[in-house]
């Protein structure tokens, strides 16, 4: 029941105009390197990143690191299914968890 609710919440959040939900193909090893966040700052300031490792997190606005994380993000996005396919996949799995 909990899994059904969690998948339902993903579908609910996907309805927001500022949210895109995409499932990434399991073959995407780039996505397994570790968690990261990209902050696009306003006012023309450079982006900043937060990258996790097993030992610690790193926050940086160093152009080389920011560029590296953007490249990882784009690589992961290239492995992602289109949003409509991803949402249908979630619905199919959700039906199994009733």
Description:
The chain has about 100 residues and is an alpha+beta fold. It has 2 domains: about 1-25 and about 80-98, no CATH class; about 25-80, no CATH class. It has 3 helices and 3 strands, in the order H-E-E-E-H-H. Strand 2 (about 50) and strand 3 (about 55-60) form a beta hairpin. Helix 1 packs antiparallel against helix 3. The relative contact order is 0.22. The model has no long low-confidence stretch (mean pLDDT about 95).
Coarse structural class: alpha+beta
Distance between the termini: 6 Å
Order of helices and strands: HEEEHH
Q: Which percent bin holds the helix content?
A: 40-55%
Total domain modules: 2
Number of strands: 3
Q: What is the strand content?
A: 5-15%
Task: Describe the main β-sheet briefly.
Answer: 3 strands, antiparallel
Number of helices in the DSSP assignment = 3
Coarse morphology = elongated
Give the overall average pLDDT.
93
Low-pLDDT runs of 5+ residues are none
Task: Give the strand order, joined by hyphens, for the main sheet.
Answer: 1-2-3
Question: Radius of gyration over alpha carbons?
Answer: 16 Å
Protein name: Scr1 family TA system antitoxin-like transcriptional regulator
Organism: Sphaerimonospora cavernae
Domain DUF5753: 2-92
InterPro entries: DUF5753
Topology:
Elements: H1 2-14, E1 36-39, E2 48-52, E3 57-60, H2 63-79, H3 83-95
Helix pairs in contact: 1-3
Structural descriptors:
44% helix, alpha+beta, elongated, 3 strands, three-stranded antiparallel β-sheet, 98 residues, single chain
